[in-house]
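This protein record is not my work; I was only asked to verify it. Would you go through it and say whether the fold makes sense for this chain? Here is the record exactly as it was handed to me.
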Amino acid sequence: MTPPLPAHWANWLAERRAALDVSGADAVLDGVLLASDFAFEEFRRRPQLLGLLAPGKSVRTRSGPTKARSGGSGPGPDAFLPLRADDPDLSASLRRFRRAESLSIIIDDIAGRDSVARTLERTTTLAEHCIEVAFSAARAELVARHGEPRDDAGKVQPIVVYGLGKLGSRELNFSSDIDLIATFPRAGETDGRRVLDNEDFFARLVQRASTLLGETTAEGFGYRVDWRLRPFGTAGRLVLSFDAMEDYYQREGREWERFALLRARPVGGDLVAGRELLERLRPFVWRRYFDYAALEGLRELKALVDAEVRRRDREHDLKLGPGGIREIEFRVQLESIIRGGRDPALRNGNTLNLLTLLAERGIIDGVEAEALADAYRALRRLENRVQMYRDEQTHVLPDDPVAAERYALALAYPDFAALMTELDDHRRVVSAAFERCLPLASSGGAVAPGNDADAELWQRVAPAAEQDDARPAPSGDPRVPTLNRLAETPAVRAMSARGRARLDRIMPLVLGACRRGTAAGQILERWVDLLAAIAGRTSYLALLAERPALIERVHELMIASAWLGRALAQSPILLDDLLDQRLAVEPPSRAELAGRMALELAAVDAGDSEHELERVRQFQQSARLELALAFLDGRADAARIASGLADVADLVIERLLGYALRDLATQHGPLPGLSLDRGLAVIGYGSLGGRELNFSSDLDLVFLYDDALQSAESAGARPLDGQRYVARAAQRLLHLLTVQTAFGPLYEIDARLRPNGSKGLLVTPLSAYASYQANEAWLWEHQALVRARFVTGDAQLGADFAALRTALLLKTRDPEVVAREVAQMRERWREALDRSSASLFDLKQGRGGAVDIEFVAQQLLLSLGTAGLDAAPPPAETAALLNWLSAHGALAAARAKALAQAHGRLLDRGLRCALALQKRVVPVAEGQ
């Protein structure tokens, strides 16, 4: 609720209303007059502008009336409509138009009709319209004198005007200058009598448009235009061609210019061509990998800003001061630069939009993101009000107590002290968040206090690998051989000075961490494997140097799991995942995993098979890392993790099946009746089918296809018959699953459970598969069906398979024959595979191990017969199957529960062995 105004301000407002010949109080007008001397002067100069006070009134902009609010819109005073490029007095009209529309923006902001975001958007739209009109008018003048600029092929060349900064991100403040860069597609010359080359033509165009926008006249100014962000700054040419722009950023582009281009957006001229050039510049701004070197770039940029703040004594600047707007912008822009190459959605310069996206992805904590968004809105609202006061480009609250009181009252605070209390609270939140993102301690040498002896050891080892006369490291230190292995790595030897400095900052912290705990030598070996892997991609060294806490986290994981240490060394990109806020919550669902895979592949060009496969592998590794951490942290039990690993495998198979079919269609044309969800089904057996996958499990796969495809033929230049086509698709899928990538293969595959085993066809028509299972299959092949399920492909084929599986498993059999054959098969497996001894127990194949429990359940199911046909199909998961058997009277409830619990314990222990890179053989006492 707005507090009542003190009497002296009520009297002051009455005097102002009288000066405008307005009788009676008006809440909106009073608020506007209190907040803005600029508005008062505009009303006094043009009384007809008082009509803008009514809801729905606005001056016309580029796309018709500006919609000031959801309740509608309407024209403003006709005296200022419309703004046209052919206006003979355009300079004056543009300035009157800007002031009138700015007044409309003030009114709707003060009246509470527009949100902060809407006010910024309207201010941006107003500037864009004025830019468009000014450049159109300037071009028309030049074309009349010099003709149209054309390239060598005679094509007319447009200009492209980019808005940068807040103009580019649609967040322009009320009285801001506008940062622009101009360019044109190709060189050439004009076709008129007074010929100019294209660069000269467009340079003159920029100069004329700048005058139309920025020159101070009797009508005031339009916009202060800043061209200093162009290539080479004030020393560079005003306008460059597309090729020259691209060449500059590839050869000369500096780190801060990446941040500048992050918010670049075409706002004038040929917008389509403008977007095309931005796509060409995309590799400069956003790298294909996570680019943590941007941390240092931002630190340098922030240091320049801070130095300017100190030089101009502007510690309380709303924009540049500590806890100000710029720190929030830097916080989100940093994440965009780091991750935008892999996540196109993050190539978004709008601060509030980015905060939402980063919170959704777990990159910024949701509570922190909301606090930063609140602070941003409050700071931008106050910044606008400071500028609305007199239409001045300022970001500093006034020293004048009268003006300060007016600000506070116009913003519904009881006094200026209350306003400052809330402002200081927001600034503290912003400063703390920025400090967490870019710790000040990293601005100097070491990122954190280290052990001097460790630092000296590394300095003595590292040069010794390069210089014959270097002082050797102490030969008695057991760490020296391991450190020598790192120092002699080719990537370390070839490091740049900056990369070497980063490694030198990291090593004392790593060595200090390895001093703690047991197996220090083994853990250091794991660290050296990781550091050797990232030595050639020093962006990851920058990440570790900037995040000492991450070094501690990695060290903890290396102690907890050899598998995790190897995974990080094989896929250093996983270091980024350790920063994900979502790692501390429940493991992801299948739907969440599917969304992440889609996001992972969104930036990959369709058909770029190598890049696609790399991203699929990274998705798999990232998901498995998250599941491993959830298991080791105790946030999920073994069954949940095994099921999650199966979900990951399912999604990988589904994605790669789509790629296999696409690649085959490219080579041989599409096959009628075959697509990702039609004609072919992938069936998972074993651990995959039973959703009991381990971190080291291979995948048992069988392929079934629709009988109708046997008579089909592909429609390409090199056609294939249906059977060969489907076989090639399955072969292609298996190749994609097993091919060696930079991060290793995805999975090992076993396809021998198909009809007739390795001698049979890789893919089988459903009818042939059904006939084989009914008439030729051995009992062990029906036993294998217990842990089989549809994975991906044709859902109807999957349903047909599920019905066939149920019928086969519940057919009438002699229980004694089943018991004998299952026992014989179990003994053959034990003789071939059991690694138990007097002191060791094989968790999987030993007596009382996981396979024994699975065989018990499978024997009971195969002996049940038709008694279970009327119920839900028997599940493939062992624990669920034991409960199902209990429900059908085949197993006592207490016995089913005991077996399920025992199977869960064995699954848990097996996962721990896999994460330790150990065989699933443990001391007998641990297996009980």
